[in-house]
Design brief:
The protein contains 12 helices and 10 strands. It is an alpha/beta fold and about 290 residues long.
Length: about 290
């Protein structure tokens, strides 16, 4: 279930509100383009600025739109263990296939604190759970021995590894074994991570080029390594462009240029600077996504 290209899907807004119509259309497009799973309410989905009702609505709409065709992995993590449990219970009730649990941010727990946090969530909610380690966002790095301890808990099934550190990723895979699914959290590391034994990616770039990200993962999985490398190198300019400003500003701006959503963000995120927007437009044209 947890392999290939999972899109960390944006949350489109229209006049300050969740744009359900655009969201459903994005999901249909992703499935048609070969995306292997939908991840609502992650970092790219601006979960930090969704209120509870909006958060639940985004998950509900995703589940109903997908109709079981691919897995829905709902972002339900927070920096409070009780809150994480509450949101995770709701995601299960709404029909999510699994949840993505970001490491508690801001309060900087110890490794033991991280272990106890995830253990508590796993014991409270019987749903497949994917850890999410992104120290650049959270301020805390979940180390491989901690991940290995958590991998021994039955319903903790994998990790989104977004450190960009291949030594750390290698240690996680070595310590946790093949049954534990390690997914890239940085598009530029996806191919390298799969070479180490990773199973795919929870992707930002797939928001804009879902077919190519899915094709790269599929090519690698089928043993067509030359084709996978070709797709990796072809995607690299887009991978870089997706972080020319804070994610998800470039992804949503690109989708707006493509006519799929409105260019609208939740503050404190704001529209992209004009100079960067032109760089993004040029990259999209070079990728064949926009006309030159």
């Amino acid at each position: 279930m947890f392999k290939g290209s999972f899109v960390a899907i944006v949350t489109p807004f229209k006049n300050g509100r969740f744009d359900e119509k655009a969201y459903k259309e994005l999901i249909e497009w992703h499935i048609a383009e070969g995306t292997d799973g939908i991840v609502p309410c992650g970092t790219t989905g601006e979960s930090a600025t969704l209120d509870y009702d909006e958060h639940y609505k985004v998950i509900e709409v995703a589940v109903k739109a997908v109709k079981g065709r691919v897995p829905v992995v709902a972002g339900t993590g927070s920096n409070s263990t009780d809150e994480t449990i509450m949101i995770t219970k709701k995601a299960k009730k709404l029909g999510a296939d699994a949840v993505l649990l970001v490491a508690p941010y801001y309060n900087k727990p110890t490794q033991e604190g991280l272990y106890l946090h995830y253990k508590a969530v796993a014991e409270a909610v019987n749903i497949p759970q994917i850890l999410y380690n992104v120290p650049g966002r959270t301020g805390v790095n979940m180390l491989p021995p901690t991940v290995a301890r958590l991998a021994g808990i039955k319903n903790i099934v994998g990790i989104k590894e977004a450190t960009g550190d291949m030594r750390q990723a290698s240690d996680v895979i070595r310590l946790c074994g093949d049954k534990f699914k390690v997914l890239s959290g940085d598009d530029f590391t996806t191919l390298t991570l799969m070479a180490l034994g990773g199973k795919g990616v929870i992707s930002v770039s797939a928001n804009v080029s879902p077919r190519n990200v899915a094709a790269m993962c599929r090519a690698w999985g089928n043993g067509n390594f030359a084709q996978a490398r070709k797709l990796h190198f072809g995607l690299e300019p887009l991978n870089q462009a997706m972080f020319i400003e804070t994610n998800p500003i470039p992804a949503k701006t690109a989708l707006s240029m493509m006519g799929k959503i409105r260019e609208e963000f939740r503050m404190p995120l704001c529209p992209m600077a004009d100079a960067n927007k032109e760089k993004l437009r040029k990259t999209l044209a070079e990728q064949g996504i926009l006309k030159k």
